[in-house]
Amino acid sequence: MSRRLRAAAFFALAMLAAGVAALLANGYGARVSAEYGPLRPVVVVARGLRPDRPLGPEEAIAALELRRVPARFIPPGALSSPRDAVGLAPAAPLPVGSYLLASQLRPPRGRAPAARRLGARRRPVEISVSGAGALLLTGPAAERTTVDVVVTAEPTATGPGRTYVAAAGVPLLALGPGADGPGPGGMAAATLGLTRGQALRLIAAESFARKLTLLPAG
After folding, report:
1. For 145-186, what is the HEC assignment?
2. pLDDT (average), residues 97-125
3. What is the DSSP letter of 2?
4. What is the pLDDT of residues 42-87, one digit of tens each?
5. In the prediction, which pLDDT does 45 show?
6. Which segments of the chain does DSSP mark as H helices, in order?
7. Which residue, 91, 129, 163, 166, has most beta carbons within 10 Å?
8. CA distance 76 to 181
9. What pLDDT sits at residue 22?
10. Pairing of strands 64-70, 39-45
11. Domain locations in the chain?
């Protein structure tokens, strides 16, 4: 057999082996999915993180890994993307290899002085908002800006729901995942410096509106 024929035969055998391996892997994945549920992305701590130190984008990429795990084994509140942790700080030391939960993170300390500088007419108020993924990705810098709070009301029998600015140019004091962790709709907990009137409007809107959205002011 010539060298060219031997090379062709070797290549054919390698391709056959790769195909068999792919079939075996697909079959194993299908069995795991059928027995334990579909595979879901989950964030795992790959490197030790210092408590109370906010995570920047580069540190989040270096210290956190994204794995696919059967849904049955993922605890409630587990993050599904490393970027959900950007701008937040671990509340306590996190073991390497553990799932990263939203309850283990919190906004960086040192926000209280900013709240005290709001003035006599404003107070810090926490509300649940949608569409805050871009602001969460920018980290602590986003919490030194002002935002407009946009309310989208539910449709009614007489027409579609309207969208309007319920509070304009309010200070954003803190921003982090909601109580149940970052959801598919990008829910987040935002602490805003609000007047009494603004706070009452937004608290009422939380109960009847389809969503509240933050937009950078200006």
Report:
1. CEEEEEEEECCECCECCCEEEEEEEEEEEEEEECCCCCCCCC
2. 72
3. -
4. 999 998 888 888 888 888 888 999 999 888 888 888 888 888 888 7
5. 92
6. 3-36, 57-63, 112-116, 133-138, 196-208
7. 129
8. 8
9. 59
10. antiparallel
11. 39-105, 107-216
Q: How many CB atoms lie within 10 A of CB 98?
A: 13
Beta strand 146-153 with 209-216: parallel, antiparallel or unpaired? antiparallel
Second-level CATH architecture of 39-105: Alpha-Beta Complex (3.90)
Amino acid at 45: V
Q: Could you tell me if 161 and 211 are in contact, meaning their C-beta atoms sit under 8 angstroms apart?
A: no
Non-local CB neighbours of 156 within 8 Å, separated by 6+ positions: none
Length of the chain measured in residues: 218
* pTM exceeds 0.85, yes or no: no
Which amino acid is it at 37?
A: G
Q: Which position has the token pair 């580069």?
A: 58
Question: Which residue's structure tokens are 């794995």?
Answer: 67
Cβ proximity of 143 and 174 under 8 Å: yes
Q: Of 25-34, 62-71, 167-176, give the lowest mean pLDDT range.
A: 25-34
